[in-house]
């Protein structure tokens, strides 16, 4: 009980004022809290001129790549390779292009064997087409694509190095398999590898293509690929081949330079023989190489000219695997 | 004799007119001829933003390079090397920096043994300085410089290839001898080659310098070198060493990228042992490598930071000398 103190009118008003201000303060705090919760989250927008790429995982869009692997009738190889590739540093996500029409993907089994280092997305296709892997997948969040055939194993060391090279040559196809075209006196082009005659620009050989079945390239080229003449798609569908030659034409036209940069692989393996499916790749077909020469000439017609350019630059990793792999007699 | 014809006054005037007009025509022709001779010759000005580079020889300024070779006390090696280098395709001119103070150049003998494929200019020096070779020689007409030590033989094949690589990387030092610096826990830098620990960026080794004693670089860097802090010249003069380290600092600062691009030589030889002079290069001095570590730290002070960047790109020539030098088990 308060006597002399409580009876003063000022103090009574003081307590009422205190209550009032307390209520006001509490209401203000609640309002502030509500406003803070409603503020938009600040997104890490590194590339303002391109598609928004939210940093959904620990690696940003510039420092990582997306593996796109198309598969047909070799699920055992696919799963073996996924176990390897899923652990590559700087891998952001895997997109499996499922060309086994009507067959269930191994997604359930995949999930039951989790957790996995990165997300793997199975893109079910409706038609078994070679060019299915060249769609502009909305799942793509990175600037870089690593495209691999479903029977090719490239070591993590090679991939890490080639990715670093791609980052220095982002407008090129940076990969492990070089090929060339040559011109013949008749004006008809022929396609081949190093066993074919050199194009004759100085000594040594030249390459004018880097195959996309084991290569890094800019995801923007998948967008560009959707804008090509219909005849290109018809050619790829007719041959079920040559999508990689078409990509090299596209890139060469775009840059005005050699389309590819060849990185010499230390450890690259073809696992074809290891499959239980009995299925061997398209390149075993009798007409495979003839088709590719045919495609070169068709594409020259379609694009009204030969855009491919030669390069003789071969890139290796300094001091790896042998720390003195550059030593000389000096 | 003309009778009725000649007597006509009109005809007399006609002949006078004819003579007059003939004289006028002849005078006009002479004047025209004189004017034509006085017209300025049209110069092939390919690079309007740079120094005028008249096409004095069969190779233009962009497709050829100037060899700059400094020499001291090894004239027998110099002449042996000149016989080799003078025949390199795309060589425009040789500049010999004559550090044999007070000694006659072999110019007379050189001329008596002509003709030679390209001009060779002997630049007589007044003081024997390591950095004499880094002057901005007015004799330089090409964009590219090939700088070679006077005891180093590099094959024509290697040079042709490295020059083509330089043309694709004109802002870098493109050469055959990579070196690196490393950082130590104390913050003091050390200089070395592959026997030194790796800088620790991923696997394999890295290099952060390409020595200019066997390399191509842009002639503009000789201009830039004249604009460096006095302390840089003092350092090079004090050590009679490190001009190449200084150049790498300069280029790295200028580009913000690794200063050099390493091209793995197929055939590079040190001819030191072949000299009759009994003189061996500076690098045999006991303190040589210690000096170079010293220089790295001094230059970091002078430039207030470490501009050198690492690279692990090693470039070789595709299909040369072995046409299948890129073959793999696939």
From TrEMBL, chains A, B:
Cofactor (UniProt): Mn(2+)
Domain Glycosyl transferase: 65-320
Compartmental location: Endoplasmic reticulum membrane
Primary localization: endoplasmic reticulum
Record keywords: Disulfide bond, Glycoprotein, Glycosyltransferase, Manganese, Membrane, Metal-binding, Signal-anchor, Transferase, Transmembrane, Transmembrane helix
PANTHER family in the cross-refs: EXOSTOSIN-LIKE 2 (PTHR47844:SF1), SYNTHASE CPS1, PUTATIVE (AFU_ORTHOLOGUE AFUA_7G02500)-RELATED (PTHR47844)
Record's protein name: Exostosin-like 2
Gene it is expressed from: Extl2
């Amino acid at each position: 009980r308060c006597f002399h103190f409580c009876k003063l009118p000022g103090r009574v008003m003081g307590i009422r004022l205190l209550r009032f201000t307390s209520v006001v303060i509490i209401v203000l705090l609640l309002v502030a809290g509500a406003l803070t919760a409603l503020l938009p989250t600040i997104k890490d927008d590194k590339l303002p001129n391109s598609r928004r790429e939210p940093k959904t995982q620990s690696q940003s869009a510039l420092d990582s790549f997306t593996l796109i692997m198309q598969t047909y009738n070799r699920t055992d190889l696919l799963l073996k390779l996924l176990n390897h590739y899923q652990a590559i540093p700087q891998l952001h996500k895997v997109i499996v292009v499922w060309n086994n029409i009507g067959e269930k993907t191994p997604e359930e089994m995949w999930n039951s064997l989790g957790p996995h280092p990165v997300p793997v997305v199975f893109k079910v296709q409706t038609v078994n087409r070679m060019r299915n892997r060249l769609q502009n997948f909305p799942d793509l969040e990175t600037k870089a694509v690593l495209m691999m055939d479903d029977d090719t194993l490239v070591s993590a060391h090679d991939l890490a190095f080639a990715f670093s090279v791609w980052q220095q040559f982002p407008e090129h196809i940076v990969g492990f398999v070089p090929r060339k075209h040559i011109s013949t006196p008749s004006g008809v082009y022929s396609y081949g590898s190093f066993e074919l005659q050199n194009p004759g620009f100085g000594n040594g050989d030249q390459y004018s293509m880097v195959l996309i079945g084991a290569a890094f390239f800019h995801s923007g080229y998948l967008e560009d690929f959707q804008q090509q003449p219909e005849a290109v798609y018809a050619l790829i569908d007719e041959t079920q081949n040559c999508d990689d030659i078409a990509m090299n034409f596209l890139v060469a036209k775009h840059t005005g330079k050699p389309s590819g940069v060849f990185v010499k692989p230390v450890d690259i393996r073809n696992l074809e023989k290891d499959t239980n499916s009995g299925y061997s790749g398209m390149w075993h077909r009798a007409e495979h190489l003839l088709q590719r020469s045919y495609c070169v000439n068709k594409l020259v017609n379609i694009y009204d000219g030969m855009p491919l350019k030669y390069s003789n630059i071969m890139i290796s990793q300094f001091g790896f695997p042998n720390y003195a792999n550059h030593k000389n007699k000096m």
